[in-house]
Write a structure and sequence with these properties.
Layout (H helix, E strand, L loop, with lengths): L12 E6 L2 E2 L5 E3 L3 E3 L7 E7 L2 E7 L27 H18 L10 E2 L7 E9 L2 E7 L6 E3 L8 H5 L1 H11 L6 E9 L2 E7 L6 H14 L3 E4 L2 E5 L5 E3 L2 E3 L11 H13 L7 E4 L7 H4 L5 E5 L2 H12 L7 E5 L17 E4 L7 H8 L5 E6 L2 H13 L2 E3 L3 E4 L8 E8 L2
Parallel strand pairs: 7-23, 12-13, 17-18, 17-20, 18-19, 20-21
Antiparallel strand pairs: 1-5, 2-3, 3-4, 5-6, 8-9, 8-11, 9-10, 11-12, 13-14, 15-16, 21-24, 22-24, 23-24
Helix pairs in contact: 1-9, 3-4, 8-9
Length: 420
Amino acid sequence: MTRRRRKKTPPAETRELTAEAVGARGDAIAPGPVYVPGLLPGETARVEVRGDRGRVVERLSDSPDRVEPFCPIHGRCGGCALQYWRAEVYRDWKRDRVVAALARAGLAAEVGPLLDARGAGRRRLTLHAERRGGAFVFGYAERASDRLVDAADCPVAAEPIRNAFPDLRRLADALAPAKKGRIDIAVAATEGGLDVAVKGVREITLDHRLVAAELAQSGGWARITISGEPVAERAKPFVRCGPAEIVPPPGGFLQATAAGEAALADVALAAVDGAKRVIDLYAGSGAFALRLAEHAPVLAVEGDAEALAALRAAADHTQGIKPVETMKRDLALEPLASTELEGADLVVLDPPRSGAREQAERLADSAVPRIVSVSCNPATFARDAAILVEGGYSMGEVTPVDQFAWTGHVECAAVFERAG
């Protein structure tokens, strides 16, 4: 049997480089190109270079747009990488990411101002814990590494999560393996209290249950789930969505901030006027569908059974909304055909980062008069938008939304009208 050869790591060399721009992931781009975290355009540094990646050894000049990061573990933690950039310039760069993606797809759409959707802070995040060399570590993954950096707080998190950090650490310490192994702690701040879902625990012991029950009670947490099993629940972990209350599945998807969700939903709601039937594709737990159902009957299509069940339960317990139908379907494998879209006055499309090329093609072949496209990836948003425009749709103003502040992530949404 022939063994596969390991790819050799290129030898390192130290160069003096000047950053020319900031790329989509937040790394500076120097001639080569070489991608260097931690630099701003115009700054010069001595950089250790391996292949097309660089590490700053010494910064030789500072940009006038450089500011002091507000997080004590910035530079080691893998999140919020751009805290050292002056806010106004950072915001222009993030909006320009959307403009550039549309231009690469051949689209000359209007792009509105970047909406600051930090709101009350991130209402969901995932922490990690392990024992390394006998020491307990609780926090986030380091940048471009599998190692963890210990975190005592997270300044961008919603206040209920920040306040719970000591107790979350205690829970993680009780559940983390004694030797090898890492656990993941997904935390969501809901209106019923914190919803904590822990993954990676192989065997749930009595001690685990007792610690979870104590922390849920003392901290006022709504629910704790360990490896898929609810072990403590003192209240329903619900989020309000228009007139409805959704109880998402443990560790289930929520938009990062409530303000971000509301900003994206507003784009869809602005397009629902006069609609008699709406189809919500990639509906999740109903962030758009349940708001739209105040105005028109909705068919919500989603491939995740737990998310769809949460949507169904919320719809069933909400008075004063139009009928909501649900359909379980993996739209990436089986997009709705143009014939299945007949009769819809509005379609909302909110796929994952990979986009929805095949579904966009079916929509382009349909007679749906109005489409709202929402995306967390400007590149796939632009690709799918170009398909719709090629199919005869006109594209309205694009709304960029920033709920992942100080990162390269940006959401965008736009309304498409069937020409004629």
